[in-house]
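Pipeline run #58 for the internal structure catalog. This entry was flagged by the ingest filter as a single-chain record with no existing model, so it goes straight to prediction. Upstream metadata was stripped on purpose; only the residue string is passed forward. Reviewer on rotation: M.T. Logging verbosity set to normal.
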Amino acid sequence: MEGGYFRRTFQADHRPRTRTPGGDRYTMTSIHYLLTHWSPIGHWHLNRSDIIHFHHHGEPVTYHLLHPDGRHSTVVLGQDPRQGHTLALAVPGGVWKAAHLTTGDHALISEAVAPGFDYADLALGQPEELAAHFPDQAELVHRYCRPTTPHPTDHSAPHL
């Protein structure tokens, strides 16, 4: 998927589902999300729902956001506001995002998603499509897109 490690920690199954264009969803879900030196990147992805990210422990995480109007913004989620970190980050649905450990070996964050997360609402970044849509950010797009794996019948040499 997008990278890192996650586990769902909550889904609002005690409430009626919310109708969305993609179908009925929980009103809210949440996860814990861990980036480590083994998996330091959350690759480009887009969610239809709004997501609030909270930093809990570890090193800062840099988020790159590509907005529908073509803008690029960067936010560092971390524990030290004197260093320009923010403790929480709201990302509206429809904004492409990628994240990476800024320094260090791990960061634990949580995400609250409303309406609740559903895989049908997730799009993973495809390098050529994203670069065509955000040409001024093509290098950034390629840097944080999930590497494509060769098809098992492709016997060409891997790129080094």
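catalog note: Confidence is low (pLDDT under 50) at residues 150-160.
catalog note: The chain has one domain: 5-144.
status: ready for reviewer M.T.
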